[in-house]
Amino acid sequence: MAFPLDTVTSAEWVAEVERDVVALLADHAHCELKAAASAHSLIAKNPEHHDLCRALTEVVIEEMEHFRIVLAELESRGGTLGEQSENTYAARLHKGSAGTRKSLVLDRLVIAHLIEARSLERFHLLSHHAKDVRLRELFAELLPSEAAHQGMYAKFARQLFGREDAEQRIAELRALEGEVMRSLPPGPTVHSGDPLRTVAVAGSPAAP
Ligand SMILES: [Fe+2]
Ligand SMILES: [Fe+2]
Protein backbone atom coordinates (compact mmCIF):
# COMPACT_ATOMS: atom_id res chain seq x y z
CA MET A 1 0.00 0.00 0.00
CA ALA A 2 1.46 3.40 -1.00
CA PHE A 3 0.90 6.52 1.08
CA PRO A 4 1.18 10.16 -0.06
CA LEU A 5 4.11 10.83 2.30
CA ASP A 6 7.84 11.43 1.92
CA THR A 7 8.86 8.97 4.62
CA VAL A 8 7.76 5.50 5.68
CA THR A 9 7.59 4.10 9.22
CA SER A 10 9.29 0.81 10.10
CA ALA A 11 7.31 -2.14 11.48
CA GLU A 12 9.43 -1.80 14.67
CA TRP A 13 7.35 1.24 15.53
CA VAL A 14 4.39 -1.10 16.26
CA ALA A 15 6.30 -2.98 18.97
CA GLU A 16 7.22 0.36 20.51
CA VAL A 17 3.61 1.61 20.76
CA GLU A 18 2.33 -1.79 21.90
CA ARG A 19 4.38 -1.46 25.08
CA ASP A 20 1.55 0.68 26.47
CA VAL A 21 -1.74 0.07 24.65
CA VAL A 22 -3.83 1.98 27.22
CA ALA A 23 -1.67 5.11 26.73
CA LEU A 24 -1.89 4.66 22.95
CA LEU A 25 -5.70 4.48 23.07
CA ALA A 26 -6.02 7.43 25.48
CA ASP A 27 -3.85 9.58 23.22
CA HIS A 28 -5.66 8.40 20.13
CA ALA A 29 -9.11 9.12 21.56
CA HIS A 30 -7.97 12.74 21.98
CA CYS A 31 -6.63 12.72 18.39
CA GLU A 32 -10.08 11.73 17.12
CA LEU A 33 -11.63 14.57 19.13
CA LYS A 34 -9.08 17.02 17.71
CA ALA A 35 -9.76 15.79 14.16
CA ALA A 36 -13.47 16.48 14.71
CA ALA A 37 -12.74 19.90 16.25
CA SER A 38 -10.46 20.87 13.39
CA ALA A 39 -13.11 19.96 10.77
CA HIS A 40 -15.73 21.79 12.84
CA SER A 41 -13.63 24.95 12.91
CA LEU A 42 -12.96 24.78 9.14
CA ILE A 43 -16.74 24.74 8.57
CA ALA A 44 -17.27 27.77 10.80
CA LYS A 45 -14.50 29.73 9.03
CA ASN A 46 -15.48 28.80 5.44
CA PRO A 47 -19.29 28.99 5.25
CA GLU A 48 -19.17 30.21 1.63
CA HIS A 49 -17.71 26.90 0.38
CA HIS A 50 -20.83 24.76 0.51
CA ASP A 51 -19.37 21.52 -0.89
CA LEU A 52 -16.45 21.74 1.52
CA CYS A 53 -18.81 22.34 4.47
CA ARG A 54 -20.96 19.35 3.53
CA ALA A 55 -17.89 17.08 3.28
CA LEU A 56 -16.51 18.41 6.57
CA THR A 57 -19.83 17.77 8.31
CA GLU A 58 -19.44 14.09 7.42
CA VAL A 59 -15.87 14.18 8.76
CA VAL A 60 -17.03 15.64 12.10
CA ILE A 61 -19.62 12.87 12.47
CA GLU A 62 -17.14 10.13 11.50
CA GLU A 63 -14.37 11.41 13.80
CA MET A 64 -16.82 11.53 16.72
CA GLU A 65 -17.85 7.96 15.90
CA HIS A 66 -14.14 7.01 15.93
CA PHE A 67 -13.83 8.76 19.29
CA ARG A 68 -16.73 6.69 20.64
CA ILE A 69 -15.15 3.44 19.38
CA VAL A 70 -11.66 4.23 20.72
CA LEU A 71 -13.01 5.44 24.08
CA ALA A 72 -15.04 2.22 24.47
CA GLU A 73 -11.92 0.14 23.75
CA LEU A 74 -9.89 2.24 26.20
CA GLU A 75 -12.48 1.81 28.95
CA SER A 76 -12.80 -1.95 28.28
CA ARG A 77 -9.09 -2.17 29.13
CA GLY A 78 -9.50 -0.25 32.37
CA GLY A 79 -8.20 3.05 31.01
CA THR A 80 -9.71 6.52 31.25
CA LEU A 81 -9.51 9.44 28.85
CA GLY A 82 -7.49 11.75 31.09
CA GLU A 83 -6.14 15.18 30.30
CA GLN A 84 -5.40 16.14 26.73
CA SER A 85 -1.68 16.38 26.08
CA GLU A 86 -0.24 18.65 23.41
CA ASN A 87 0.02 17.06 19.98
CA THR A 88 3.62 18.08 19.24
CA TYR A 89 3.44 16.63 15.75
CA ALA A 90 0.44 18.71 14.61
CA ALA A 91 1.63 21.83 16.47
CA ARG A 92 5.01 21.65 14.70
CA LEU A 93 3.38 21.24 11.30
CA HIS A 94 1.28 24.38 11.83
CA LYS A 95 4.18 26.35 13.30
CA GLY A 96 6.64 25.17 10.65
CA SER A 97 4.33 26.12 7.80
CA ALA A 98 3.61 29.65 9.03
CA GLY A 99 6.79 31.27 7.67
CA THR A 100 6.14 30.23 4.04
CA ARG A 101 2.36 30.32 4.10
CA LYS A 102 0.39 32.03 1.32
CA SER A 103 -3.08 31.00 2.48
CA LEU A 104 -4.15 29.86 5.93
CA VAL A 105 -7.07 27.85 4.52
CA LEU A 106 -4.88 26.09 1.94
CA ASP A 107 -2.34 25.20 4.63
CA ARG A 108 -5.03 23.94 6.98
CA LEU A 109 -6.41 21.69 4.24
CA VAL A 110 -2.95 20.41 3.28
CA ILE A 111 -1.89 19.81 6.90
CA ALA A 112 -5.16 17.97 7.61
CA HIS A 113 -4.47 15.87 4.48
CA LEU A 114 -0.96 15.02 5.74
CA ILE A 115 -2.08 14.23 9.31
CA GLU A 116 -4.77 11.92 7.93
CA ALA A 117 -2.25 10.32 5.54
CA ARG A 118 0.21 9.67 8.40
CA SER A 119 -2.60 8.27 10.56
CA LEU A 120 -3.57 6.02 7.67
CA GLU A 121 0.01 4.75 7.34
CA ARG A 122 0.22 4.06 11.08
CA PHE A 123 -3.24 2.40 11.18
CA HIS A 124 -2.15 0.18 8.30
CA LEU A 125 0.96 -0.87 10.24
CA LEU A 126 -1.03 -1.53 13.42
CA SER A 127 -3.71 -3.48 11.54
CA HIS A 128 -1.04 -5.78 10.08
CA HIS A 129 1.68 -6.04 12.72
CA ALA A 130 0.14 -5.57 16.18
CA LYS A 131 0.41 -8.68 18.33
CA ASP A 132 -2.83 -7.74 20.08
CA VAL A 133 -5.63 -9.11 17.86
CA ARG A 134 -8.26 -6.66 19.12
CA LEU A 135 -5.91 -3.76 18.35
CA ARG A 136 -5.38 -5.07 14.81
CA GLU A 137 -9.14 -5.24 14.30
CA LEU A 138 -9.76 -1.81 15.80
CA PHE A 139 -7.31 -0.01 13.51
CA ALA A 140 -8.45 -2.03 10.47
CA GLU A 141 -11.98 -0.78 11.21
CA LEU A 142 -10.85 2.88 11.40
CA LEU A 143 -8.60 2.71 8.34
CA PRO A 144 -11.07 3.14 5.41
CA SER A 145 -12.49 6.44 6.60
CA GLU A 146 -9.01 7.91 7.25
CA ALA A 147 -8.12 6.93 3.66
CA ALA A 148 -11.20 8.83 2.47
CA HIS A 149 -10.43 11.84 4.70
CA GLN A 150 -6.86 12.29 3.44
CA GLY A 151 -8.15 12.19 -0.16
CA MET A 152 -10.99 14.61 0.58
CA TYR A 153 -8.70 17.26 2.10
CA ALA A 154 -6.31 17.07 -0.89
CA LYS A 155 -9.25 17.23 -3.33
CA PHE A 156 -10.60 20.43 -1.79
CA ALA A 157 -7.11 21.99 -1.65
CA ARG A 158 -6.87 21.45 -5.44
CA GLN A 159 -10.47 22.47 -6.12
CA LEU A 160 -10.38 25.73 -4.14
CA PHE A 161 -6.78 26.84 -4.82
CA GLY A 162 -6.02 25.36 -8.26
CA ARG A 163 -4.10 22.19 -8.98
CA GLU A 164 -0.71 23.84 -9.49
CA ASP A 165 -0.66 25.91 -6.27
CA ALA A 166 -2.12 23.05 -4.24
CA GLU A 167 0.40 20.51 -5.55
CA GLN A 168 3.28 22.87 -4.83
CA ARG A 169 2.14 23.40 -1.25
CA ILE A 170 1.45 19.68 -0.76
CA ALA A 171 5.05 18.94 -1.86
CA GLU A 172 6.49 21.62 0.45
CA LEU A 173 4.49 20.56 3.48
CA ARG A 174 5.11 16.87 2.80
CA ALA A 175 8.83 17.59 3.12
CA LEU A 176 8.17 19.46 6.39
CA GLU A 177 6.06 16.54 7.66
CA GLY A 178 8.91 14.13 6.94
CA GLU A 179 11.37 16.36 8.82
CA VAL A 180 9.03 16.71 11.82
CA MET A 181 8.37 12.97 11.92
CA ARG A 182 12.07 12.11 11.82
CA SER A 183 12.74 14.42 14.76
CA LEU A 184 10.03 13.15 17.14
CA PRO A 185 10.90 10.74 19.97
CA PRO A 186 9.35 7.25 20.07
CA GLY A 187 6.43 6.70 22.44
CA PRO A 188 2.94 5.18 22.75
CA THR A 189 1.09 7.54 20.39
CA VAL A 190 -0.06 7.28 16.77
CA HIS A 191 2.14 10.25 15.83
CA SER A 192 5.27 9.27 17.77
CA GLY A 193 8.72 8.97 16.23
CA ASP A 194 9.91 5.71 14.70
CA PRO A 195 12.50 3.94 16.91
CA LEU A 196 14.44 3.30 13.67
CA ARG A 197 13.55 6.80 12.43
CA THR A 198 11.29 7.10 9.43
CA VAL A 199 13.15 6.48 6.20
CA ALA A 200 12.75 8.47 3.00
CA VAL A 201 10.66 6.92 0.27
CA ALA A 202 12.89 6.06 -2.71
CA GLY A 203 13.06 8.93 -5.19
CA SER A 204 11.51 11.38 -2.75
CA PRO A 205 12.87 14.94 -2.80
CA ALA A 206 13.09 14.67 1.01
CA ALA A 207 15.64 11.82 0.84
CA PRO A 208 18.59 12.73 3.07
FE1 LIG B 1 -10.60 9.34 12.78
FE1 LIG C 1 -9.83 11.27 9.93
The succession of helices and strands, N to C, reads EHHHHHHHE
Average predicted confidence as pLDDT:
92
Specify the CATH class: Mainly Alpha
Helix content: 55-70%
What is the CATH homology-level superfamily?
Answer: Ferritin, core subunit, four-helix bundle
- Overall number of structural domains: 1
CATH topology category name: Ferritin
Question: Which spans of ≥5 residues are poorly predicted at pLDDT below 50?
Answer: none
| Strands, total number | 2
Oligomeric state as shown: single chain
Protein name: tRNA-(MS[2]IO[6]A)-hydroxylase (MiaE)
Organism: Saltatorellus ferox
GO molecular function: tRNA 2-(methylsulfanyl)-N(6)-isopentenyladenosine(37) hydroxylase activity
Pfam families: MiaE (PF06175)
Describe the protein in words.
By secondary structure, the chain is mainly alpha-helical. The protein has a single domain, classed as Ferritin (Up-down Bundle). 70% of the residues lie in helices and 2% in strands. The chain has helices at residues 12-17, 21-45, 50-76, 88-98, 104-129, 133-161, 163-183; strands spanning 7-8, 199-200. Strands 1-2 form a two-stranded antiparallel ribbon. α2 (21-45) runs antiparallel to α3, α3 runs antiparallel to α6 and α4 crosses α7. It is globular, with a radius of gyration of 16 Å. One fe (ii) ion (FE2) binds at residues 35, 63, 116, 146, 149. One fe (ii) ion (FE2) is lined by residues 35, 63, 116, 146, 149.
Descriptors:
single chain; 208 residues; mainly alpha; Ferritin; two-stranded antiparallel sheet; 7 helices; Ferritin-like_SF; tRNA 2-(methylsulfanyl)-N(6)-isopentenyladenosine(37) hydroxylase activity; Ferritin-like
